[in-house]
Amino acid sequence: MSLATYGDYAARTRESFARQPAMRAMGISIDDVAPGEVWLSMPFNPDFTQQHGFMHAGTIVSGLDTAAGFAAFTLMPEEAGVLTVELKTALMRPGKGQRFNFHARVVKPGRTILFTEAVAMAIDAGQEHEIARLSATMMAVEGRADIRG
Amino acid sequence: MSLATYGDYAARTRESFARQPAMRAMGISIDDVAPGEVWLSMPFNPDFTQQHGFMHAGTIVSGLDTAAGFAAFTLMPEEAGVLTVELKTALMRPGKGQRFNFHARVVKPGRTILFTEAVAMAIDAGQEHEIARLSATMMAVEGRADIRG
Amino acid sequence: MSLATYGDYAARTRESFARQPAMRAMGISIDDVAPGEVWLSMPFNPDFTQQHGFMHAGTIVSGLDTAAGFAAFTLMPEEAGVLTVELKTALMRPGKGQRFNFHARVVKPGRTILFTEAVAMAIDAGQEHEIARLSATMMAVEGRADIRG
Amino acid sequence: MSLATYGDYAARTRESFARQPAMRAMGISIDDVAPGEVWLSMPFNPDFTQQHGFMHAGTIVSGLDTAAGFAAFTLMPEEAGVLTVELKTALMRPGKGQRFNFHARVVKPGRTILFTEAVAMAIDAGQEHEIARLSATMMAVEGRADIRG
């Protein structure tokens, strides 16, 4: 699959990511960017745990959704923004570990609609476990062109 | 639909909710509890916005998922815990507003598997808009009985 | 919610439905149409059962998806067609019964993207049970304007 | 990932598949079986098309869901049956082609809950296109032990 990008897509992706206060609040950072792919990670953060002491499902979904949104963003024209239309997440194991990695990729690009998938891994005592998988529909918006409107 | 509860389910639900640091971090609080139903809300929180200044999709999903998980929890035996097996969220409008309400209910109870749905409303300049809808599968766990194991 | 329609949307919906061989093959018929809503039904059909003798999940999803697609179609301009972008179905009870009803409605209209939900009921020995619930994203296409392209 | 099977899982999977009238009706056959994996295929079938002459989304979902269910079934004990708890399907391209392949695999096994994914490919004029992707939760049932009950 040949994935076309526009201009310095990697710098644009990192800049847009940096403008998300929610990522700072949770301690999620961007590790790498490629055409149609993004890697994020976060250390275990006790402020975002649930009642059993594991990372909250909502935080795992936040990492997966953001990775997937920016994976789509890497393929969009310079003036475009990205919105999530819908997402599904399978939560396969508890969010237990010292570090969490989120890897997303575009499985079907498109001018307006992009299909994405992402995987969350927990690193727990040196072992890596797949804890969640996301499937999400992303949308490119330019100006006020929110096609959900 | 007659929904059986166990003991003081409402107090147990509020106590378990209070043990979720992630809810405190995002400023989400519990407003009301009924058999198979939970209402949460949060004020606009600039720390959890995305790059356009709206609430981050991950935060909206966190509120919806937590409401749905505790809606399921209201119907569980005293020693049980709740885990999300999977969730899907349709993001219909931007997370734009001064306040956000999350209302979840169990659409099909069960001993181990409970099907739930939830709706997120934004209150923006006095007007209420439905911004997202969740469908999620919840699981009751007792002791180490994680049936995903 | 005021839902605008175009021309004789009901006749157009019934005509488009009648051009789906898959509906004839499964014995699914259209019962009623309203702005943003469609009702379908089918009798128990032994040709579309699974290994336990109940209606196959795929057939239940076919009824739900088609109801939701045409619920979206009722709100589209005369020259538009409808495509499913994605769907999620919760299968809450076995597809056991003598008759199955599918009721879908648009939960958020839009020019290009429409969010829909649908419910499948089984009528079994005179009793009605909710067996499945769908959440789906529908897309309006005009000419070759497949925004997934 | 080491995936344990029970007895002659492959023969059991093929026998259970053969007892699904819905598969015969749509012309879907089983091509191959491995631990945690199943391959199905069907020729283009005009009886299961939608109004544009492409395979109906419901039929594509039927193939994906069945492949995923039996991929889970390959890992279950001899007396167990499989039920779909929920499924999500992303429909990325039209169901246009002369032949359709469905490949499913278990992404996280478990005694009661198994997480699965599947991909649908269309072969159109000698070219293979990915047209849909499924993420589904499967459940093992023994006797009357429907944990949705």
What does this structure look like?
The structure is a homotetramer of 149-residue chains. Chain A has 149 residues and is α+β, with helices and mostly antiparallel strands. Chain A has one domain (9-142): Hotdog Thioesterase (Thiol Ester Dehydrase, Chain A, Roll). Helix content of chain A is 22%, strand content 42%. A six-stranded antiparallel beta sheet of chain A has the order 1-2-4-5-6-3. In chain A, a hairpin with a 2-residue loop joins strand 1 (29-34) and strand 2 (37-43). The termini of chain A are far apart. The model of chain A has no long low-confidence stretch (mean pLDDT 95). The A-B interface holds A 16-17, 19-22, 24-25, 46-52, 56-59, 61-63, 65-66, 69, 81, 83-94, 146, 148 and B 16-17, 19-22, 24-25, 46-52, 56-59, 61-63, 65-66, 69, 81, 83-94, 146, 148. Strand 3 of chain A pairs antiparallel with strand 3 (80-91) of chain B, so a sheet runs across the interface.
Number of helices, where a helix is a run of at least 4 consecutive DSSP H or I residues of chain A = 3
Question: On the 0-100 scale, what is the average pLDDT of chain A?
Answer: 95
CATH topology term of chain A: Thiol Ester Dehydrase, Chain A
Major sheet attributes of chain A: 6 strands, antiparallel
SSE string of chain A, helix = H, strand = E?
Answer: HHEEHEEEE
Give the distance, in angstroms, between the N- and C-terminal Cα atoms of chain A: 31 Å
The best one-word shape of chain A is elongated
Low-confidence stretches of chain A: none
The number of domains of chain A: 1
State the secondary-structure class of chain A.
alpha+beta
The percentage helix of chain A is 10-25%
The top level CATH class name of chain A? Alpha Beta
